[in-house]
Amino acid sequence: FQRRTFPRVIQSYTRLASTMAPQLKDPSLLKQNVCYVNGEWVSAKSGKTFEVHDPSTGKLIGTAPEFDEADTKTAIKAAASAFETFRHKTGRERSKLLRKWYDLMIENQDDLAKLITWENGKPMADAKGEVTYAANFFEWFSEEAPRIYGDVIPSSVPGNRVLTLKEPIGVCGLITPWNFPAAMVTRKIGPALASGCTVVAKAPGETPFTSLAIAELAHRAGIPAGVVNVITANANTPAVGQVLTTDPTIRKISFTGSTGVGKLLMKQCSSTLKKLSLELGGNAPFIVFDDADVDVAVAGAIASKFRSSGQTCVCANRIFVQAGIYDEFAKKFAEKVKTFKVGNGFEEGITHGPLIHDRAISKVEAHVRDAEKKGAKVVVGGNKMPELGPNYFQPTVITHMTTEMAMAEEETFGPVAGLFKFSTEEEVVKIANSSEVGLAGYFFSRDIERVHRVAEHLEVGMVGVNTGLISDPAAPFGGVKESGFGREGSLYGISEYQVTKMVTYGGM
Ligand code: NAD
């Protein structure tokens, strides 16, 4: 990364403060500071709010309502009442609503992207990409809504007929994280609405404004009142979570976030036996075999490891490189990382933004220091960047990693790439699978037999072969082991929001 860009970035803060911030506060730019319940914009009944800060500067962006248990119950009631009507809309009607919502997201791509960059910190180009990706879930599921079919099953009893009906499960509670403020929520709402469900979505405390802006577009798209409710809370989050997971009206919870919170929500859901989807943390192995195209592997590792400054659940967390090409890969990879331009995501040409908050910085720093202490070598970066702002960390490359280091076990969730050396396929697959979590895994090889073998042996829910980017609304996204269960996107994603009802017709 280029240190010489720093003064330019610092100068830019003055310009941003004078031009960008007032522009962003323009209400036409979708920023709402109230929640969306039953088709109306509402504050918390207590009047309490919480502050949201720009991770780039630490400055206040605005406040959002601090919803409590009673506020949450009001939203659930609205969703339950709307469900009675919405479930009977035809697939075609639901499809048109989702398509309109998709169109509005694309029309408002720039404004949504500005909100994402403002509250999440990722560069504008990435934020725009996220808006497209997020909107694509509405498009994809608008196309699926009219094609929800049951089956006709030959009965084993003479004269009987067996049919299955795919019915919407009911009111759904959705809880999403800050790292993809737009895509995580549309990935859940799209299939829920396509199926005929209604939702109460709890936005992340760090990035509530993107979810609220998407709710504003739901309103403009004509989504009926109560079908989509978006609520916010920060300090009260566990209380809101408690209501969502225990209220008997809610029939399904879909959660994306950390494994710890996922386990807690699963326990809470047990009292009312809700259907549950959990998209949890990862510790993705990224394996480069000697027979790989090294340049392709380097590009894949850069994309996978450093997108959103390493704050993606599918990002490469452990990069294993076979001994024969380790030095060449490490050199080329480090050279690429040195070209990154770190700074405020609104700045032209910035490739990598800040981390979300100081806790993220502390974790990343602890992982780097731990690796150094245990014998690893920091070849690029390795330190905080206070000269840029409170939450910046240098894109970092570390060689000579070993499995005793914290980064081998825990999700770093930051811009730090640790390179491990391995000798054999058997050895690396064993180490890759030693993790308790299994979300994504990647490997690079040009040996067709190895490609099939390793893809089948990795204990993960998603495999990237000769690519570092795997997210696609058309493909099932989800994990195994402690990365959770359930799939989002694709036809599999829609079944998460359905009940299969069997009907037997006797004596026909
Ligand atoms: P987190 O679990 O702390 O928070 C996620 C969401 O849960 C937020 O909205 C938060 O407010 C809410 N929450 C926290 N405690 C809660 C409680 N007691 N009851 C109800 N809701 C509660 O996770 P995070 O640190 O914000 O997000 C990063 C994590 O998310 C990483 O582990 C990452 O791997 C994971 N993630 C997974 C996927 C996936 O698809 N598998 C995608 C993105 C992020």
TrEMBL record:
<feature type="active site">
    <location>
        <position position="279"/>
    </location>
</feature>
<dbReference type="Pfam" id="PF00171">
    <property type="entry name" value="Aldedh"/>
</dbReference>
<dbReference type="InterPro" id="IPR016161">
    <property type="entry name" value="Ald_DH/histidinol_DH"/>
</dbReference>
<dbReference type="InterPro" id="IPR029510">
    <property type="entry name" value="Ald_DH_CS_GLU"/>
</dbReference>
<dbReference type="InterPro" id="IPR050740">
    <property type="entry name" value="Aldehyde_DH_Superfamily"/>
</dbReference>
<dbReference type="GO" id="GO:0009450">
    <property type="term" value="P:gamma-aminobutyric acid catabolic process"/>
</dbReference>
<dbReference type="GO" id="GO:0005737">
    <property type="term" value="C:cytoplasm"/>
</dbReference>
<dbReference type="GO" id="GO:0004777">
    <property type="term" value="F:succinate-semialdehyde dehydrogenase (NAD+) activity"/>
</dbReference>
<keyword id="KW-0560">Oxidoreductase</keyword>
<dbReference type="InterPro" id="IPR010102">
    <property type="entry name" value="Succ_semiAld_DH"/>
</dbReference>
<dbReference type="InterPro" id="IPR016160">
    <property type="entry name" value="Ald_DH_CS_CYS"/>
</dbReference>
<dbReference type="InterPro" id="IPR016163">
    <property type="entry name" value="Ald_DH_C"/>
</dbReference>
<dbReference type="InterPro" id="IPR015590">
    <property type="entry name" value="Aldehyde_DH_dom"/>
</dbReference>
<dbReference type="GO" id="GO:0036243">
    <property type="term" value="F:succinate-semialdehyde dehydrogenase (NADP+) activity"/>
</dbReference>
<comment type="pathway">
    <text>Amino-acid degradation; 4-aminobutanoate degradation.</text>
</comment>
<feature type="domain" description="Aldehyde dehydrogenase">
    <location>
        <begin position="41"/>
        <end position="503"/>
    </location>
</feature>
<dbReference type="InterPro" id="IPR016162">
    <property type="entry name" value="Ald_DH_N"/>
</dbReference>
<protein>
    <recommendedName>
        <fullName>Succinate-semialdehyde dehydrogenase</fullName>
        <ecNumber>1.2.1.16</ecNumber>
    </recommendedName>
</protein>
<comment type="similarity">
    <text>Belongs to the aldehyde dehydrogenase family.</text>
</comment>
